[in-house]
Write a structure and sequence with these properties.
The chain is an alpha/beta fold and 360 residues long. It folds into two domains: 207 residues, 3-Layer(aba) Sandwich (Isopropylmalate Dehydrogenase), CATH 3.40.718.10; 128 residues, Isopropylmalate Dehydrogenase (3-Layer(aba) Sandwich), CATH 3.40.718. It contains twelve helices and 14 strands. The strands form three sheets. A ten-stranded mixed sheet has the order 2-1-3-12-11-4-5-10-8-9, with helices on both faces. Strands 6-7 form a two-stranded antiparallel ribbon. A hairpin with a 6-residue loop joins strand 6 and strand 7. Helix 1 runs parallel beside helix 12. The longest helix has 18 residues. The two termini are 23 Å apart. The relative contact order is 0.16. The protein binds nicotinamide-adenine-dinucleotide. Nicotinamide-adenine-dinucleotide binds next to helix 4.
Length: 360
């Protein structure tokens, strides 16, 4: 049992979400999950309809649901709006409104897509890392912030701040994740320069005593960026703050070669979650039926795992995705010139996953 609010959003959002919902419906029926879903507005679509990128009704429905499935927001039509009214603000507000403090971004390299990475295959093949990013604190939300002063002499400023409870709650969720995987957690900070991360390191070190089965290490963010592209397989789970996590998770995403393959989960302490692909609304290909829906489909698998605790249903989706890739189905973003590949559109990729699920 459970309810999911579906927020297609803008650009390719509605196309990829439609395929993910089909997949959800298939596993829902097959495993008798009893899940229901309803649609609401966010982003540019919500601005056009209501003037607000996150209408109150959307937030109310999202908070009352067990999970939210989101496509993507934004596009050139809304780029001229003031910062506070842009589609992306809807995303920041729903994350904060649902108190989604933990962002999980796995970077997994499917063997069939090893060529898609810009790194040498031996550096990335078999890559399976998880970046856990604190999502509603740190410099993106810290006060005071602003631009002040007389023209020509203005000063721009932001505040990076984390309290001990904020560090502890993201730390515990990351230790738990490491415990369920390879047992290694790397905490990334800049404790040689920033006091906020001196405190971060102290709290992580204190928590380690509660997780004797997890090996904790610390790394400065500049070194972490370097190590991610030098030898990414040294990592199992990485935990870091909002700003560093934003940058490192995009770098990790590119190790895998296609942003169209990467799901994400953002959770709160009640395990309510917002599940979305890592990519944006891709306005350059919107409406052409060429978008890759797999990141959104894999986000449904993460939802079944983290919010609904149904590992079997999640695995069924992951297996179906592996199967369609092994069978040669490719959307344009993950295609090469290989003869055994079959280039398909967004809808046909959804068909292939559904067919594979039904054949399991
Ligand atoms: P983007 O991720 O939308 O696109 C980057 C490139 O990747 C484009 O060439 C696009 O065609 C391609 N791409 C992305 N997803 C794809 C998919 N599923 N299949 C195939 N190709 C795919 O990033 P951008 O161009 O920097 O941003 C476009 C808009 O999206 C902007 O308005 C931005 O603010 C917004 N955005 C939203 C989110 C979000 O909703 N979470 C995240 C990032 C960017």
């Amino acid at each position: 049992m459970g309810h999911i609010v579906v927020l297609p959003g803008d650009g390719i959002g509605p196309e990829i979400v439609a395929q993910a919902v089909r997949v959800l419906d298939v596993v829902n029926a097959r495993f008798g999950l009893g899940l229901t879903h309803s649609e609401a507005l966010i982003g540019g679509a919500a601005i056009d309809a209501t003037g607000d990128p996150l209408p109150e009704t959307t937030l109310t429905q999202a908070k009352a649901a067990d999970a939210v499935l989101l496509g993507a927001v934004g596009g050139p039509a809304w780029d001229g709006l003031p910062m506070s009214q842009r589609p992306e603000k809807g995303l920041l507000r729903i994350r904060a409104g649902m108190e989604l403090f933990a962002n999980f971004r796995p970077a997994i390299l499917y063997p069939e897509l090893a060529h898609a990475s810009t790194l040498k295959p031996e550096v990335v093949s078999g890559l399976d890392i998880l970046i856990v990013r604190e999502l509603i604190g740190g410099i993106y939300f810290g006060e005071p912030r602003g631009i002040e002063g007389a023209p020509g002499q203005r000063v721009g400023f932001n505040t990076d701040r984390y309290s001990e409870p904020e560090i502890e709650r993201i730390g515990r969720i990351a230790f738990d994740a490491a415990r369920a995987r390879g047992g290694r957690l790397c905490s990334v900070d800049k404790a040689n320069v920033l006091e906020v991360t001196v405190l971060w390191r102290e709290v992580m070190t204190r928590l380690a005593a509660d997780y004797p089965d997890v090996t904790l290490s610390h790394m400065y963010v500049d070194n972490a960026a370097m190590q991610l592209v030098r030898a990414p397989k040294q990592f199992d789970v990485v935990v870091t703050g909002n700003l560093f996590g934003d940058i490192l998770s995009d770098a990790a995403a590119m190790l895998t070669g296609s942003i169209g393959m990467l799901p994400s989960a953002s959770l709160n302490s009640a395990k309510q979650g917002l599940y979305e692909p890592c990519h944006g609304s891709a306005p350059d290909i919107a409406g052409t039926d060429t978008a890759n829906p797999l990141a959104t489909i894999l986000s449904v698998a993460m939802m079944l795992m983290h919010t609904f605790n149904h590992r079997e249903a999640a695995t069924a989706i992951e297996t179906a995705v592996q199967h369609v890739l092994a069978t040669g189905f490719r959307t344009r973003d993950i295609a090469t010139a290989a003869v055994d590949e079959r280039i398909v559109g967004c809808q046909a990729m959804g068909d292939a996953v559904v067919t594979s699920l039904e054949g399991q």
